[in-house]
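We both want to read discrete structure tokens more fluently, so let's practise on a single case. Would you write everything just below, so we can both look at the same thing?
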Amino acid sequence: MIKTYWKTFAVIAFLIVVSWFTYQQITDDTYDGMSIIPEHHKDIPLFERLKPTEHQYVVKGNKWTDIYNFYLKELPALGWKVEYEDSALNDSDTENDWSGFYSRWRKEGFDGELWISANYNQFEEQTEVIFDKTPLYNSTIWIEDTPESICIYQDQNDEKCSEIEEKSKIEEIVRFINDAIDWDKEVLSREKTSVIEIGNTEIRVFYENDKEVYFQSEKGTKLMKPDPDFFKLTNL
């Protein structure tokens, strides 16, 4: 009787240990690709029903506008200041309504910058949210005044350029360049090189598929994430 009791106890104890170890492994794998975990920060609320899946959080259905409004309301109340935000709501093209939003936040005492972005994955029928913690970078203003037109050479060796005169497009392109972060580290090679002439400033653009974009001019080097809107505006 006593032996049976201890055998049962030993089996139960073993199962508890195995279950705990398995849980730890699952938890570690779940958050393995994340630079920041909202659940570990009291001042970063998690939108209801969001579930972590390695490098991102997901929720069923098209919820990105709800998530966008949630963080615009909740983060400032917790001391966060928005550095930049943009969304498909600012785009009149209804075909882009799935593309979601992008935002950057800072807070006193937080070592870095909090990036939150979301989009609706139509194929999986789920909203995907990414939380990211990045170091603080500077963004030097290269273009002070918006010119009446800009000239874009698809290839650095082209003799003729495509001219853009639409004010709204020029302003957006200038914003992309000015908001790109100052870069004093190694510039990695890219397959393509284009040139943008803005006033007296000649900017070489190094890019390749979904890799980071480099801007180079006499004012230095900048780095930018490969934003599809930039390529659409410049036709690169």
Summary: The longest strand covers residues 113-121. The two ends are 79 Å apart (CA to CA). Confidence is low (pLDDT under 50) at residues 5-11, 20-27.
